[in-house]
Amino acid sequence: MASSSEPNTIVTNGMSLFSRDGQNCNSALLVNITPNDFESSSPLAGIYFQKKLEEKAFILGGSNYFAPIQRVEDFLKNQKSKTIGCIKPTYQPGVTLSNLNELLPQFVSETLKQGITYFDTKLFGFANPDSILTGIESRSSSPVKILRNEKLNSNILGLYPCGEGAGYAGGIMSAAVDGIKCALSLISS
Q1: Staple 99 to which of 41, 49, 80, 134, CB 3.0 to 4.6 Å?
Q2: pTM value?
Q3: What gap in Å lies between CA 140 and CA 160, rounded to an integer?
Q4: Across the strands, what pairs with 71?
Q5: CA 154/CA 152 separation, integer angstroms
Q6: Helical (H) or strand (E) element with 108
């Protein structure tokens, strides 16, 4: 689903509807990004890195809020997809056949290729040539972390940064658990 929060960016989210009865199944493929991968040492360098990728995805998708997509076979061969195979993309408002290797830093593309190939040895069909990669899901984790003390307060007394946006979770469940931890700390103070 489309998840952009700023103009001229593409952010996707491979969420599943509650009934899990969609046309396709999905999985997010994540690559570890560290501060060493950023172009500066700014505290906001992670946000700048993320935004640059989202803007490139917008352009690669056609500058019309269509997401760039690529067949797995073409991604592995580093060639632009020219056709869609048996798996039909469901991203709205639409998609543009692309080469996602042009969007991603080389170390990200190479890591994804290794991951796809490896997962196919564990889950046959994971690297189906017609599987579709939709770019870019860049909001799986916060690119910043708001520091907190042992009582889970930030440097502003009474402010309890928690969950994914504050850099303390990596999904809905861990964000919920972190929220409970912060609530318990607030109650006990």
Answers
A1: 80
A2: 0.85
A3: 21
A4: 132
A5: 7
A6: helix 106-122
Tokens of 179: 């929220």
Angle at alpha carbon of residue 112, lines to 107 and 116, rounded to 5°: 155
Q: What are phi and psi of 12, to 5 degrees?
A: -110, 160
Is residue 59 packed enough to be buried (19+ CB in 10 Å), middle (13-18) or exposed (0-12)?
A: middle
DSSP class of residue 136 equals -
Q: Which of 14, 133, 135 is nearest to 85 (CA)?
A: 133
**Bond prior to 136 in cis (omega within 30° of 0):** yes
Q: Where are the beta strands (DSSP E) in 12-108?
A: 67-71, 95-97
User: Tens of pLDDT along 98-140?
Assistant: 999 999 999 999 999 999 999 999 999 999 999 999 999 998 7
Cross-strand bridge partners of residue 69: 97, 134
Q: DSSP letters of 138-180?
A: --SS-S------TTS--SSTT----STTTTS-SSHHHHHHHHH
Q: What is the DSSP letter of 96?
A: E
With tokens 């994971």, the residue in question is 126
d(CA 170, CA 109): 22
Phi and psi, residue 13, nearest 5°:
-140, 125
